[in-house]
Amino acid sequence: MSSALIRRLLMPVIAAALILALLPGLAAAKKHDHSDNGKGKVVSVMTRNLYLGADLGPVIAAENTEQVVSASGAVLRDVIANDFPTRAKGLADEILSTKPDLVGLQEVSLWQTTPITPAGKALTIDYLELLLNQLNRGPDRYEAVVVQNEFGTETPADVNGVENDGPGGELADAEVLGKLLMRDVILARTGAGVHTWNAEGGNFKTLLELEVGGQPVAVKRGWTATDARVRGSGPFHFVNTHLEAFHPLIRAAQAQELVAPGGPATSSLPVVLVGDLNSDDDTVTGADQLASQALLAAGFVERSTNAPLSCCLESPLLAVGAGGSVSDFDHQVDHVMTNDPGITLERSEVTGLQPVNGFWDSDHAGLFSALRFGG
């Protein structure tokens, strides 16, 4: 038998063997398949609250400068203990394992301390920089499309707990000025056919007003947005927001701002809205439903799962054994919504429901949705 004839006879066998060898990889790839399959284009999105790192309640409740100094020091100690450089690894793994095309982030904190006495130490913890470093350590890449500054404050703080090492008077124990800036951010996956334009951000007109240590403070919250097209999908308007957590009527007013004529969640394009709404239509009760109801009344529909629920750990400390439990996740405030019936839910999942690297990734879980843009 000639060698040419042998090759012709063996080719079908070789081809079949190659197909069988490739099947596991093909099956794994199908989980995150973004092809249209003749049924329209699939666009994947995610919303992720990073947790600012501490409970600010004691600072807000402080009645004078001395109490602000003490409470602010405790907050900074919690931020350090909650170890965002480690948490960023788990958060990045959540994103890289699901490969969303667009990600809406909330509570993207920037913490800094400036020494005011020789006992003080300078510190910078930039959540955005640390998360991007983890996301971009391999072949998959993400970039920030828009960054919007939200609530910020600067207070004297006693981080080290040492008495009388500050400048004196009411600041007798303060060795640093502690600064917090929270941001909302949209990330886009690069090299994956994701194109964005008209990126913008802003703050709501209706804001919660607090008094901290006798001084008025406005709790800035807002939104980020961009127009986008993903791998040949039709263009759409992507909006990420974080509504007020502590006052349901202000939260509802902010939701109304989103969908009012000319608001950031209105467009001639289909709108995909993600974020921490601090509201839901069925897993919370009373006034906490109002913001969600305002969005539903404006024509938005849910495009994410609530099984399992994704909010929230009750402990301000995220280390394993510090008090948080998966049983704490008993309601929903993080959402993916759209106002276009031609955008349907392909699949959705909750991420980050178990601690890794010794920490919960955040006090929230993450929420991922693959959306089908009409066939």
Structure description:
- The protein has 375 residues and is of the alpha+beta class.
- The protein has 2 domains: 1-30; 31-373, Endonuclease/exonuclease/phosphatase (Deoxyribonuclease I, Chain A, 4-Layer Sandwich), CATH 3.60.10.
- The protein contains 7 helices and 16 strands.
- The protein has helices at 3-30, 57-61, 65-81, 84-98, 127-135, 248-259, 290-297, and strands spanning 41-49, 102-106, 110-115, 123-126, 141-157, 176-190, 194-203, 208-212, 215-219, 222-230, 236-242, 271-276, 301-302, 334-338, 343-351, 366-373.
- The strands form 3 sheets. Strands 1, 2, 3, 4, 5, 6, 15 and 16 form an 8-stranded mixed beta sheet that branches.
- Helix 4 crosses helix 5 and helix 6 (248-259) runs parallel beside helix 7 (290-297).
- It starts with a helix and ends with a strand.
- Mean pLDDT is 90; it is low at 1-38.
Task: Tag the structure with descriptive keywords.
single chain; 375 residues; alpha+beta; Deoxyribonuclease I, Chain A; 2 domains; eight-stranded mixed β-sheet; six-stranded mixed β-sheet; 16 strands; disordered N terminus
Structure summarized in a few sentences:
With 375 residues, the chain is an alpha+beta fold. The chain has helices spanning 3-30, 57-61, 65-81, 84-98, 127-135, 248-259, 290-297; strands at residues 41-49, 102-106, 110-115, 123-126, 141-157, 176-190, 194-203, 208-212, 215-219, 222-230, 236-242, 271-276, 301-302, 334-338, 343-351, 366-373.
